[in-house]
């Protein structure tokens, strides 16, 4: 028996990208928002905090199929399906990320059959933007048209204009940052630089895997760092020296930022003796979880110190309990949707770091969080007084129309617009980058339109602010460090 109202599962629904999508519903505000959006919608995209694999662009191979492009790398998508009992096994996703999907058409069909699960989510918004705008599809996916849509997109993906580098140009991406392990050779970045291309692709220094002293493969990670610098690491001093050297390698390759995560915002430094003792315990294989947490906090402080010295913008995003379910991690690895937000104490956690560096003119720190209860209570007041601190865009679970609106409403009274980075996307889903930026520009146009409508801003001020949020503020938050290559 079919449930009442399930016609959408059997009859294709027309795909329409309404020109006023997510703009305010009040006619007066909507008209103002349209004027503001018209000045920002076609601006170049600056993407300084991304997770697109640089090999995708360096190798520039055609995307193999729609399932590999849209389903496999998107943990927003797979976690929603998993919450309804459609796990990675049913989707046919191999545990090994290097192994191709055995039956991508079957994976795509299963997703299309359950498209209704994404109603009201940002995933739906981004995908419709890509399918309707980039691929020219005119139907929502469903059970009846799954194969037809698969064939249409597969045919497009075989065209030269849909190769990764061609899409970089088509998306209007002025520059794009990847996120790379501290031990990465950067060979793919050099290969891409030699090949030229429409946008500058920069590495980002990601060291935090080396701070997890109790991780089962910590010694393997340390060995990779030793190989990258060509020397043994036998204590805290040589460890810090190796990180400094690698940061210089990244800067020479065009990096503008470092990036690290942690569960808490603690930045309490250890004494040299304490740091040596904890590192020695890790080398001996008997560091405790308390020692590992203290070492992570210490290295947050050390990364800030290094940023003061070398000019890399420090990105910090605490507040996620990573790999929440251990058996999922053992089977499938990280980044499969089992990271869960936790509460964060920024006021006490960042105090040691901000006392030391918060007014240093050479230091820039961008903070992201999943704990939106801190927006107005902690982060906006901190960014409103410390010149080194900027607020990153709503991240991950908050990267949605409602989340973006709540952020602007929560932080602007205290931090204003200019103590934020503007919109900074955080995705490994390459084709969703322009969709995410378009969504943020629409939400900002709507927010600014409200200020104009209530006569808190003039229209020309709102337009100038919208342009700054979309383009100028991200560039200002991530300037080239001294000693890096000159921009093209």
**CATH level 4 superfamily of the largest domain:** Metal-dependent hydrolases
**Rg from Cα:** 23 Å
Provide the CATH architecture of the largest domain. Alpha-Beta Barrel
How many separate structural domains?
A: 2
The total count of strands amounts to 11
The overall pLDDT average reads 94
Structural class: alpha/beta
Q: What share of residues is helical?
A: 40-55%
Shape verdict: globular
Oligomer: single chain
Number of helices: 21
Distance between the termini: 63 Å
CATH class of the largest domain: Alpha Beta
% residues in beta strands: 5-15%
Low-confidence stretches: none
Descriptive account of the structure:
- The protein has 21 helices and eleven strands.
- The chain has 488 residues and is an alpha/beta fold.
- It has two domains: 62-162, uronate isomerase, domain 2, chain A (Orthogonal Bundle); 163-477, TIM Barrel (Alpha-Beta Barrel), CATH 3.20.20.140.
- The strands form four sheets. Strands 6-7-10-11 form a four-stranded parallel beta sheet, with helices on one face. The protein has a three-stranded parallel beta sheet with strand order 1-2-4. It has a two-stranded parallel ribbon with strand order 3-5.
- Helix 18 crosses helix 19 and helix 19 (401-415) packs across helix 20.
- 44% of the residues are buried.
């Amino acid at each position: 028996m079919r449930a009442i109202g399930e016609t959408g599962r059997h009859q294709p629904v027309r795909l329409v990208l309404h020109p006023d999508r997510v703009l305010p519903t009040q006619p007066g505000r909507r008209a103002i928002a349209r004027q503001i959006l018209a000045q920002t919608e076609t601006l170049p995209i600056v993407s300084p905090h991304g997770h697109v694999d640089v090999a995708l662009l360096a190798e520039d191979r055609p995307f193999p199929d729609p399932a590999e492009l849209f389903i496999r790398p998107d943990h927003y998508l797979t976690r929603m399906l998993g919450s309804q009992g459609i796990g990675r096994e049913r989707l046919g996703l191999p545990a090994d990320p290097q192994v191709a999907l055995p039956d991508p058409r079957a994976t795509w069909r299963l997703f299309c059959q359950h498209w209704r699960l994404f109603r009201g989510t940002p995933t739906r918004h981004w995908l419709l933007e890509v399918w309707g705008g980039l691929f020219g599809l005119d139907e929502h996916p469903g059970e009846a048209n799954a194969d037809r849509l698969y064939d249409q997109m597969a045919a497009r993906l075989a065209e030269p204009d849909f190769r990764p580098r061609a899409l970089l140009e088509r998306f209007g991406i002025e520059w794009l940052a990847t996120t790379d392990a501290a031990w990465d050779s950067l060979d793919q970045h050099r290969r891409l630089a030699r090949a030229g291309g429409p946008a500058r692709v920069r590495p980002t220094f990601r060291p935090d895997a080396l701070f997890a002293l109790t991780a089962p493969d910590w010694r393997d990670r340390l060995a990779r760092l030793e190989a990258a610098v060509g020397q043994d690491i036998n204590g805290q001093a040589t460890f810090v020296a190796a990180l400094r050297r690698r940061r210089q390698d990244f800067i020479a390759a065009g990096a503008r930022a470092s990036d690290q995560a942690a569960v808490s915002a603690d930045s309490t430094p250890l004494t040299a003796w304490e740091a040596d003792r904890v590192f020695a315990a890790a080398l001996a294989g008997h560091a405790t979880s308390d020692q590992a947490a203290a070492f992570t906090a210490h290295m947050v402080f050390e990364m800030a110190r290094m940023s003061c010295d070398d000019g890399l913008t420090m990105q910090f995003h605490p507040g996620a309990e990573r790999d929440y379910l251990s058996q999922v991690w053992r089977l499938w690895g990280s980044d499969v949707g089992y990271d869960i937000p936790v509460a964060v104490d920024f006021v006490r956690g960042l105090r040691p770091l901000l006392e030391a560096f918060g007014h240093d003119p050479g230091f820039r720190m961008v903070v992201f969080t999943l704990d939106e209860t801190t927006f107005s209570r902690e982060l906006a007041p901190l960014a409103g007084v410390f010149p080194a601190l900027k607020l990153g865009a709503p991240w991950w679970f908050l990267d949605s129309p409602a989340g973006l609106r709540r952020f602007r409403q929560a932080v602007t009274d205290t931090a204003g617009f200019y103590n934020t980075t503007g919109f900074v996307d955080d995705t490994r889903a390459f084709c969703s980058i322009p969709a995410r930026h378009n969504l943020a520009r629409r939400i900002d146009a709507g927010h600014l339109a409200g200020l104009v409508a209530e006569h808190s801003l003039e229209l020309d001020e709102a337009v100038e602010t919208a342009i700054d949020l979309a383009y100028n503020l991200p560039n200002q938050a991530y300037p080239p460090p001294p000693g890096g290559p000159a921009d093209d």
